[in-house]
């Protein structure tokens, strides 16, 4: 029978043996897959390093863009020393009992949402699909953004050739374990000050004094503006990261900016939602689902009261919801009943089910003006209702609020209606009844506003940062990168942006 098969050369067997041994050694040594299959079927070669601060991935794992398509769009990612790897195993932020580093699995997306059963305790009612959705922590954007930059098609190792320089440091993750309480300035500010000193000592910084550098700080701006004079009260929350001379030169992306500050020091970008698709088809399917969703509630609210009436507008909202006719006007998730309330409001399925069943979603100020809930409302196609100017997308998410299709068609963005504004003072003074105000909108007006909200969904979500996205769709990251590069380009061209820059403690003229 041996004569029926061709003989295999011995050298071929040797080659197979050597290749097999090499692959086995690699798998045992790096302990992570070399390949990953995306939802669109695109194979992505994963970088070996387990540290998010590693250098950019090899170009051969992406389709190489033409040099012309990257002209003016190159980004250089700073290779940080290990001491600035905030979530490295054994680091202070990682070891803290208050650390959120362990919640950053799946490149920051968090755990995959478990499929909802027929009798799900999450109250999902089949609204949320079983793929593309994650239990994403609200502070995860630093990690998500970092992984997206690593897949950016126009990365360069040459900072001189770059239009912008990205600093992959996680200031919010570092601050989180000691955000509030009796921590002195050394604990609060020490790590970020060391990072700024190191950055400003590099040749790449010297070229423009850091004005071509940008980074993400995934908390509100207020958390990085804490200034304590000598002998002052050292309690309170936050650190002084954004008031340091070096950070004032950079473009910093936060969840909420100070809208009254001129010139603007930092720029607000959307909170991450729970939806991180890997294809444009997933997004289109979700948008269609939100257009067809029955919405029995007139308005909805997810949140909690504050002790001693410190946020009176929330008390009025709860009162309005409690007074509404049962099963007709108001749906709510009360997050204020201890552990049970906290668990309830941290269920993405329950939250999205409520918002997807409501016409309007109330967004009063909380600990700050912006709430992650406002982004959740957009994902659910629920018309946001704002009660303070500083909570509106027009004031905070200017880059993402704009509708490029309207601009291309010659339609003013001012003509778009996608939210309702009710002054909280009018509610507190009894001049406006929330239910009556929202009931005045006709079905046609509601449908028109909802469609505008649903069209905003792509601009307010972040794609899955682990895979190549299938389809042509710009998300919050794509918009942010383009706007950051455009801003830095204006700075390089000498445009006066009304900003004061600093170098070794000295003021540099605006626009220089």
UniProtKB/TrEMBL annotation:
It is found in: Golgi apparatus membrane. This is Xyloglucan galactosyltransferase KATAMARI1-like protein. One of its GO terms (molecular function) is glycosyltransferase activity. The chain crosses the membrane at residues 12-30. Residues 70-437 form the Exostosin GT47 domain. It is a single-pass type II membrane protein. InterPro entries: Exostosin (IPR004263), Exostosin_GT47 (IPR040911). PANTHER family: EXOSTOSIN HEPARAN SULFATE GLYCOSYLTRANSFERASE -RELATED, OS12G0224400 PROTEIN. Belongs to the glycosyltransferase 47 family. The lineage of its organism: Eukaryota, Viridiplantae, Streptophyta, Embryophyta, Tracheophyta. Pfam families: Exostosin_GT47. Keywords: Glycosyltransferase, Golgi apparatus, Membrane, Signal-anchor, Transferase, Transmembrane, Transmembrane helix. One of its GO terms (cellular component) is Golgi membrane.
């Amino acid at each position: 029978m041996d004569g029926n098969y061709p003989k295999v050369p011995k050298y071929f067997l040797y080659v197979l043996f050597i290749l097999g041994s090499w692959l086995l050694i690699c798998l045992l040594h790096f302990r992570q897959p070399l390949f990953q299959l995306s939802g669109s079927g695109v194979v992505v070669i994963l970088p070996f390093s387990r540290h998010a601060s590693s250098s950019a991935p090899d170009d051969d794992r992406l389709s190489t863009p033409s040099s012309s398509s990257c002209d003016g769009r190159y980004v250089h990612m700073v290779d940080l020393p290990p001491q600035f790897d905030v979530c490295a195993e054994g680091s202070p932020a990682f070891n803290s009992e208050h650390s959120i580093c362990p919640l950053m699995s799946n490149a920051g997306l968090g755990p995959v949402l478990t499929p909802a059963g027929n009798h799900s305790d999450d109250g999902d009612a089949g609204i949320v699909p079983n793929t593309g959705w994650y239990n994403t922590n609200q502070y995860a954007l630093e990690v998500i953004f970092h992984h997206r930059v690593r897949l950016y098609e126009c990365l360069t190792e040459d900072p001189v050739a770059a239009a912008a320089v990205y600093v992959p440091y996680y200031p919010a993750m570092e601050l989180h374990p000691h955000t509030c309480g009796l921590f002195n300035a050394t604990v609060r500010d020490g790590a970020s000050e060391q990072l700024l000193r190191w950055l400003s000592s590099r040749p790449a910084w010297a070229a423009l004094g850091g004005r071509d550098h940008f980074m993400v700080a995934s908390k509100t701006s207020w958390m990085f503006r804490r200034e304590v004079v000598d002998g002052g009260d050292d309690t309170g929350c936050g650190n002084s990261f954004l008031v340091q001379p070096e950070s004032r030169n950079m473009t910093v992306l936060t969840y909420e900016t100070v809208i009254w500050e001129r010139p603007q020091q930092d720029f607000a970008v959307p909170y991450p939602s729970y939806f991180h698709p890997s294809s444009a088809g997933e997004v289109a399917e979700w948008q269609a689902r939100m257009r067809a969703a029955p919405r029995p509630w007139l308005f909805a609210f997810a949140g909690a009261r504050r002790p001693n009436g410190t946020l009176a507008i929330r008390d009025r909202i709860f009162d309005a919801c409690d007074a509404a006719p049962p099963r007709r006007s108001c749906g709510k998730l009360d997050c204020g009943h201890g552990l049970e309330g906290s668990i309830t409001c941290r269920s993405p399925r329950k939250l999205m089910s409520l918002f997807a069943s409501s016409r309007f979603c109330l967004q009063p100020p909380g600990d700050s003006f912006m709430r992650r809930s406002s982004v959740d409302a957009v994902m659910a196609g629920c018309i946001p209702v704002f009660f303070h100017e500083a909570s509106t997308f027009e004031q905070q998410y200017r880059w993402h609020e704009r509708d490029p299709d309207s601009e291309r068609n010659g339609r003013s963005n001012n003509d778009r209606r996608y939210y309702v504004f009710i002054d909280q003072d009018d509610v507190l003074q009894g001049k406006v009844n929330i239910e009556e105000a929202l009931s005045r909108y006709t079905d046609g007006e509601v449908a028109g506003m909802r469609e505008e909200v649903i069209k905003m969904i792509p601009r307010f979500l972040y794609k899955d940062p682990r895979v190549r996205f299938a389809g042509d769709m710009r998300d919050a990251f794509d918009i942010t990168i383009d706007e950051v590069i455009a801003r830095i380009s204006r700075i390089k061209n000498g445009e006066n942006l009304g900003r004061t820059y600093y170098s070794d403690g000295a003021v540099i003229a605006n626009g220089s």
